[in-house]
Structures
1.
Amino acid sequence: MRKLLFLIIAGTIIPCFNIAAQDVTTVEAKSVDISENLDLEAIASVFGEAKDLEDFEKKLNDPELQISNLDLNGDGKVDYLRVVETSEKNTHLIAIQAVIGNDQFQDVATVEVEKDEKGETRVQVVGDVYMYGPNYIVQPVYVSPPVIFMFFWGPLYHPWHSPYYWGYYPPYYHPWRPHPTPYYRSNVHLSINVNNSYHRTSVRYSNNAVNLQKQVKRNDYARANPGNSFQKRNKGLKNSNELQRDRNKKAKPAARPGNNDSRPVNKDWKPSGDRKAKPATTNKKAGNKPANKPNTTKPSQKPALTKPAHKPTQKPAATKPAQRPSQRPATTKPASKPGGTHKPAARPTNTYRTKPSPAKKSRPKARRR
């Protein structure tokens, strides 16, 4: 009996666990897309900071930068990205391929560098059609000419073909587990140089690059999974650019409703102490307002706001600014100063009267003659 009960319990628990695991995987498959695990703007930014193609491949696989989050073979580790270059005259095509198995590679993007007749160098990062849909192109405009341009047009140029393959990687590289896609999107933007400009276009400049790509193209993953192309993964969308637009439109309305909810708070505002003091002097002004409102107690209390009425009356009635100008002329100090001037005025009058006195005495002297 004990053995039978144990088998029954074990039989009921195991199927439940398998069902739950299947539900989780289906939700993850619908919520993210393969193309969202490799940002082409980050590739364009890192390309402009590299000194040559060997350094460019090193930056793509740097465990600290973590430019890529791709795990195409599903082994729980981010795939190594190798760089393969081919050129013809003034056109250089750099293919970025994911190493997914023994002699198995998959194109994820290409960097196309071309010099025009004026001597200007143009760069376009083109996403693979299987990964990103057709005509998904990022065109960077660098704030200063990248050093890697000197590598392409300099006398020391030599084509680069990555020597690394499945099971043989450079010493600086060690694989890491892929992150959730939302975390990767927020983390990879730290590696993008914001001083540059990254334009989206659907026009591919170089016709030579299309022919050069045929020489080095590898699509082993696409052949093994023909039903997992971008257009079949995202029906109704042309390329990854439209996928990102739809995601941004769905994310914006969620943050706006909170702004309008704060406006009705003003209805509950009341000055402090309205219900305590109601002076009779404000009844005349307040009595006109509730005349159009129903005879309820609530509207009669609201117009009887006395504090806003007292505040403007008390401010002009303040005597402090009026006393300052009145006290200054009323002071006796300036009055005493002109009064003190009368005393010295009396002194010269006395001297003036004493001077003509000897003139009177001269008259009797004339009579004596």
2.
Amino acid sequence: MNWQLQDAKNRLSELVNRALSEGPQTITRHGAPTVVVMDFKDFTQQSGREKLSTVLHACPVKGWKVSRDKDEGRSLRLS
């Protein structure tokens, strides 16, 4: 469901309850989607789980070459 920012501020408790019971709720500003309010448990399950290399390998654009630079940096001599 989409909420205008002013409505979201005025009805925050309802917004949170709907996010918990119905799923993510979108807040718009000047008609454009701006933020999403969602259950924290769902957020933690969805965020930060995939490595960038996994995402790039799944990318539909062909020709990606994903490799890791084996350079371990410079030697540093401490005196």
3.
Amino acid sequence: MALPSGQQSFDCVEVRFKNSRKEFFRNSEKLPLSMGDVVATEAASGHDVGIVTLTGELVKVQMKKKKTDWEDPSLPKIYRKASQRDVDVWTAVRNKEEEVKKKSRELAIALGLQMKISDIEYQGDGSKATFYYTADERVDFRQLIKDMARAFNVRIEMRQIGFRQEASRLGGVGSCGRELCCSTWLTDFRSVNTSSARYQQLSLNPQKLAGQCGKLKCCLNYELDAYLDALQEFPKTDVKLQTRKGKAICQKIDIFKGFLWYAYEENSANWHKLMLDQVQEIIGKNQDNVKVESLEEYASEIAEEDTKREFENVVGQDSLTRFDQPKKKRKNKTRKKRNHKRATKKRG
């Protein structure tokens, strides 16, 4: 589509490489590019091959979001649309990445290095291979680079990544049943701490709160702001209610339903359910040095809604447990077949 008033289209494009790695390139040759085109791009040495994911003014928005200067003269360029030979070489080196990864892991284990090589990415022309690894401590891999260069006959680049970046590159399915956020749409990794789970009244179970990267799930931050806004109306959990029967401590909070559960210090097993306005009333009286009689006077007996639902039989009249019932013997049918065979033999 031609731009109005003879305006020139934006000369930068976004190109995607392996595992959603994206970079920006300048289309200095004014090639007619569109999303999905395979292009040969400039690299430190040789060329790389990638797929165009964005063109036009949307690229300017992405570059502004990622704080990339589109007027930078050192921005790498796009050489050409990939030829058939470029695609063949690119496909060939991509197919041998798994075998190279397995061999490189064996070399690292033989040297006793405390590192995990998680992924390998070959450059489009096959002249260079980038090895992504994770490690808890500093690793001296100089001998490993020599062994891998001798075994694979290619230039080696070692790049350390974090555990979240590793999960982003490898991908997977989370406990929610959907693809990992970090490998689909999440672009920045914000720090997640246990206070995010505490504010949302979640149990501090590492098996449930940790993602595939071994760190706390990024989704713990998604609804945190809504919980913090709602908690502003609630009293602090360390505030004790003063009653004639004793002091009461907060045990549990239901933020969005507005319920709080309190229990006496002497009888912590017996919880009393109160509403937010009732708790605020008791705290207001305590500030005036007035003790209420007991929590039982304020305890709200809220009838629980009947959660049972009647489901219609969408399958039809068949029972879902029909296969669990033992099959009945078909004596009558077998007898009829035998009598029919005997009758036909006599006629013959």
4.
Amino acid sequence: MAFTEAFHCDVCGKPKGEEVEDWWLAWTETISPVPGEPEQPVMRLTRWHSFLAHSAEVRHLCTATCVYTLMGRWMLAES
């Protein structure tokens, strides 16, 4: 029995195809720029990487438009 893996854009729902596409991965984490100060949330963005794509915290994004949309939503939620 063959295993089929399917990814979809977390913003628009577009399925990721087999062909080469400019897909992106994004996730949030916290940093403490100064020891003792409160942590700050940051968003990380990188090009598609099959290993990273399997992480539960990672968001899959199909285009720059969807990256901008996710970033805007994140910024509004953090303010």
